[in-house]
Amino acid sequence: MKTDYATPASGQFFRTTRSACAVALLVSLAACGGGGGGGGSGFVGFPTSGGGTTVPPASDPPAATAVTFSGTAASGLPLSGTVTVKDAKGATKTEPLVDGNYKIDVTGMTAPFVFRAEGTVGGVRTVIHSAATAADANGTINITPLTDLVVANIAGRLAAQYFEGGEFASLTPDELKAESDALKAKLLPVLQALGVDSSIDLLRTAFTPLSSALDKALDVLRVSVDPATNVATITNIVTQQQITDDLAVKAAQDAGTTPMSGAGMETAADDITLIRKALTDYVAKFATGLPTAGELTPLLATSSNSPYNFRLSDLSAAEFANEEAADTSMVGASFTEVVINRINYTIDPVNNPGPRAYVEFTHRDKNGVAFSNNKGMQVVKGNDGVWRFRGDGRVLDINPHVQASKDAVTGCVTTALQFSIRDSNPSNSNAAVSVVVTGPGLPPNGLRHVRPALAGDYWPIENGDGSNLYRLASNCANLPTAGLTDSAIAAIPATPEYVFTAYTSGGQVAQITNSTTDIVYRQSFNARPMTLAEAAAAAYPSFTTTPAFASYNGGSDFTVSATGLNPGFAAEFFLNLFASSSDNAQEQADVAPSTGGTASKTFNLSVGSTPVFRNMYVSTRDATWRDVVLRDSRILPP
């Protein structure tokens, strides 16, 4: 018997140097010679005209001069979270980020300093670093992937390891300048192509997220570091050009590196603005109410205005517009955390007939509650030069989830992956009889999902229990799982990617009907699955029902009242009554919780006979979009 009849998934589609000695007295006299590398904090003496110092009487010590740092923490988008500063003696202080901005008081602390900004960017866990010396006191220090790379080059290893080790008491202004200038030289052609002034200081020049030229550069440049080799790779998402940076090689020995070319970036700066405008123009249609489908269609790519046709999760432009025109969560909504992952200007009549951008973003309702995190969305340049939504281009509806669930009766927990696959329009994908999902934590040959008998249903896992839930581990009695240990789950990459490949009955890769395009899609998660220990410690919602769930047979109102919901995310309510394969009813709803984390939903389902199985759940989300589900399933006695 099936144990899962639906997936926790949002129903919405748009639901991302000054003189060191002149300033060092503010922090440490000893930093300017005469007494060690770090020195004490605050004023320890006053300079005299002869260059010596007069020590004030011990009975009347002067107050320490306030020292602060401020700046912006961003990685293409403002970072949501905190900034922690660590000084040369290991002391730390933490302050919150507000719209990516921070101000932190380091009075009494000892220079130099390393900063860590941690939190989320577009729902993805992000940790980046920066650094400052006494010469930077009361100034701007930015924290970005580029400053993280500057720190890593100084350290010769990951910036995170440098911060955690606290081995930076000897950090000097000259080191910071050398590595920052060297990195800027490598990137200058790209920076200038995006409107960044050549005089910019990557560490210290103030900028405004989402609007300044430097922010556009952070949109375009991606930094990754291989911890095994300590080699960083910088990728230009527009041209796909890459340069590498060996962290073990200091700036003085790295002067011969060829800078990243700015060729191919001629319109990128303007296009980044226009791509973002396409998103804001769309939500503007919902500013005061629901638009008609006809009002939305001109904002979508169709054969009349673009070399592309719209397709999103197997919906055509007309189907999508009709659904959106009825989605009340879009009224007053916004698209936030917008990340442009790539802009492809290389024209290929078959595979890329026009400029195309790949973006992700979060759909938030009028109160800022997040309804969905949209990945793989395409925005394309039309025949008239206007950028429009193209959808994800997929002929299958693929909606994967990381899930931790708790049984409402026994309290046992399960950690799982759920690859929800549906096909609402088989005519464009009828050759596909199965979809194999491959990636971290899955069997070596992947996880095969097979086409269901009923069009539009979820594709179950082959030879499974009829569900699409792949349980990694559980402490629930008699529940089959993959048997992964917590250490094995913890070893899954922080943002794992999975590949969905459709196959024909003959074992060949399936193609879109009447085309030579393979049905192969990729999608990543914002976080790895929880370990079983993490799942057990997760904050699950609670719910009560009226009438009692065990006695509800349908035909009347059934109200679910939930508490303990994450108020920043829409909660999902689900109810299923199953009498037989031909006699069953189910309903799913996304509901914005109150600021106190409460919400309710009233169902009214009908079935022709007494249900033999009831299934319900309430699902909330953690900060990285992982589902946290409280589930109750009841099988009636014969």
Structure description:
Helix content is about 15%, strand content about 30%. Mean pLDDT is about 90; it is low at about 1-10 and about 15-55. The chain has ten helices and 29 strands. The protein has helices at about 20-25, 145-155, 160-165, 175-195, 215-220, 270-285, 295, 315-325, 485-490, 530-535, and strands at about 45, 55, 70, 80-85, 90-95, 100-105, 115-120, 125-130, 220-225, 230-235, 240-245, 335-345, 355-365, 370-380, 385-390, 395-405, 415-420, 435-440, 445-450, 470-475, 495-505, 520-525, 540-545, 560-565, 570-580, 585-590, 600-605, 615-620, 625-635. The chain is α+β, with helices and mostly antiparallel strands. It has a seven-stranded mixed β-sheet with strand order 20-17-16-29-28-25-26. It has a four-stranded antiparallel β-sheet with strand order 5-4-7-8. The chain has a four-stranded antiparallel β-sheet with strand order 12-13-14-15.
Give the arrangement of secondary structure elements.
Elements: H1 20-24, E1 46-47, E2 53-54, E3 68-72, E4 80-87, E5 92-96, E6 101-105, E7 113-121, E8 124-132, H2 145-155, H3 159-165, H4 173-193, H5 213-220, E9 221-226, E10 231-236, E11 242-246, H6 268-284, H7 293-296, H8 317-324, E12 334-344, E13 356-364, E14 370-381, E15 387-391, E16 397-407, E17 413-422, E18 434-438, E19 447-450, E20 469-474, H9 486-490, E21 497-503, E22 520-524, H10 532-537, E23 542-546, E24 558-563, E25 571-580, E26 583-591, E27 599-603, E28 613-621, E29 627-635
Parallel strand pairs: 16-29
Antiparallel strand pairs: 1-2, 3-6, 4-5, 4-7, 7-8, 9-10, 10-11, 12-13, 13-14, 14-15, 16-17, 17-20, 18-19, 18-21, 21-22, 23-24, 24-27, 25-26, 25-28, 28-29
Helix pairs in contact: 2-4
